[in-house]
Design brief:
The chain contains 5 helices and 3 strands; from the N terminus they run ααββααβα. The protein has about 110 residues and is mainly alpha-helical.
């Protein structure tokens, strides 16, 4: 269920950018749930976050299954190239892949 939620959120975001702000804490909670789930998989999580290979395997094998080429194409669209770091932290996912900015929920100002 965790993987399905994340994949659905990821795909919906890619296809339909939100018309209003998503709460950073909700995205971070989903990411933490994924990390907790992957703790049971050998060599999937390290101190920096979720290993890129484990992240890609979630996208390839759960929910709406994606092929390697599809994942590479999505990464290229999001980043400009097909490479990912060894591990994906929440900050990297939030800022570098999804291109969100942290916003102070009280007044809507971007956090620095």
């Amino acid at each position: 269920m965790i993987n399905l939620f994340f994949k659905l959120t990821f795909r919906l975001y890619l296809n339909h950018r939100p018309y209003k702000e998503l709460e950073m804490v909700k995205i971070e909670n989903s990411f933490e749930r994924i990390k907790n789930y992957l703790q049971n998989e050998p060599n999937s999580v390290n101190e920096k976050g979720v290993k890129s290979e484990a992240f890609a395997n979630l996208l390839k094998n759960y929910g709406e299954v994606m092929k390697d080429e599809e994942i590479e194409d999505i990464i290229k669209i999001l980043k400009g190239d097909r490479s990912l770091p060894e591990s994906i932290s929440f900050q990297y996912l939030f800022e570098d892949l999804l291109k969100f900015e942290a916003v102070d929920s009280k007044d809507g100002n971007t956090e620095n």
